[in-house]
Write a structure and sequence with these properties.
Layout (H helix, E strand, L loop, with lengths): L4 H13 L6 H8 L3 H19 L8 H148 L6
Helix pairs in contact: 1-3, 2-3, 3-4
């Protein structure tokens, strides 16, 4: 929104009436806007204030003219000429100083606007960086929680592996025992088969010696 010259004048008048020092930054705090917009209007206001404060130059009183007659009038004219010459010189020097001051002020105003824009941009980047930092911290927290859960799962899996390993050891021990028992059973079976074969042969021998019926 553009700032009007009238609002700048009103702010400067209010500060002057309140006994405050009228500066570019102080007016900007009241009206807002940029230094580039406020500076020309404030310079115009200060020029009007300076013009209003200048004393009025009046002609010599008639009584003086009458008393001094021609000599007094000539002396007054010479004095006015000298005063006007000096005033012109001072005005020229003042105008040059004013131009240099305005040039410096314009340069400072442009620099202030540039620095203000850079500051706003830096603040914007700082806000983005802070938001990114908060998001990164949230991601780190989530990763830490996930890592904690993964560690619990790994510990549970390790415990399960150890339990299965113990069960495998027990199964292997049982298998070894069963293998030994099977070997013992095979040996016992072989011995029994030999005994059965002996008994079978003995039985056949006995049957051969028995008399045949009807003879």
């Amino acid at each position: 929104m553009a700032i009007s010259k009238e609002s700048i004048f009103a702010a400067a008048d209010a500060m002057l009436e309140g006994g405050q020092r009228v500066t570019l930054e102080a007016v900007r705090q009241i009206t807002g806007g940029s230094y580039t917009t406020i500076s020309p209007a404030l310079n115009e206001w200060k020029a009007k204030q300076a013009a209003a404060a200048m004393p009025l130059r009046e002609a010599a009183p008639q009584s003086v003219v009458n008393r001094l007659n021609d000599l007094g009038t000539e002396i007054w004219a010479v004095a006015m000429e000298l005063a006007n010459s000096r005033l012109a010189t001072e005005r020229e020097a003042l105008d040059k100083a004013r131009q240099a001051l305005e040039a410096n002020r314009d340069e400072a105003t442009a620099l202030a606007d540039k620095l203000s824009a850079q500051l706003e941009a830096m603040q914007g980047r700082l806000t983005v960086a802070e938001e990114a930092s908060v998001a990164a911290q949230g991601q780190v927290k989530e990763l830490e929680e996930a890592l904690g859960s993964e560690r619990v799962r790994v510990q549970t899996a390790d415990a399960r592996v150890e339990e299965l390993r113990r069960e495998l050891d027990r199964a292997q021990a049982g298998l070894l025992d069963a293998s030994k028992e099977a070997s013992s059973a095979r040996e016992a079976s072989a011995r029994m088969a030999g005994q059965i074969e002996v008994l079978k042969e003995q039985s056949e021998a006995l049957m051969a010696r028995l008399p045949v019926a009807g003879k």
